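testing teh design pipeline on a random one, pls ignore if ur not involved
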């Protein structure tokens, strides 16, 4: 049985957002996607998660997070996710245009569950996003579903 995912996409590059949202729409999984374009706004939304008029109706099942964000960068935001007991169990998929090993290591040492480089061709990125969604929806046990 395929489950739907409540996805939070935090990325400031409009072209990348379009590609990732398109890939999520084409996925085998029914996804509800919320897009936030900067790290500071993401922090504000996450801090207001339990308030009645929050942008997010519930905690995201997974987060796609760009490393290079304005105001609060992705690694700092990842630390905030992993340091918060309410959010720390949410899988975070880091996205970056960088293939630099330093960025990959920084993401994983900060608690990222997966690192996807956006520097690959469109079809490869779309396939990677779909594969991640299928895995988290159908194979992994998510804490947001308990």
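output:
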């Amino acid at each position: 049985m395929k489950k739907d995912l409540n996805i939070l996409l935090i990325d400031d590059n409009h072209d990348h957002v379009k590609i990732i949202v398109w890939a999520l729409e084409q996925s085998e999984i029914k996804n509800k996607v919320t897009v936030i374009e900067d790290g500071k706004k993401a922090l504000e939304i996450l801090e207001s998660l339990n308030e009645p008029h929050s942008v997010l109706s519930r905690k995201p099942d997974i987060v796609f997070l760009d490393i290079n964000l304005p105001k609060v960068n992705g690694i700092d935001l990842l630390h905030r996710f992993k340091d918060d007991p309410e959010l720390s169990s949410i899988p975070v998929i880091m996205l970056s245009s960088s293939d630099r090993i330093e960025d990959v290591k920084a993401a994983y040492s900060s608690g990222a569950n997966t690192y996807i480089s956006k520097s690959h061709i469109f079809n490869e990125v779309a396939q990677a996003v779909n594969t991640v969604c299928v895995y988290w929806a159908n194979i992994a046990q998510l804490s947001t579903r308990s």
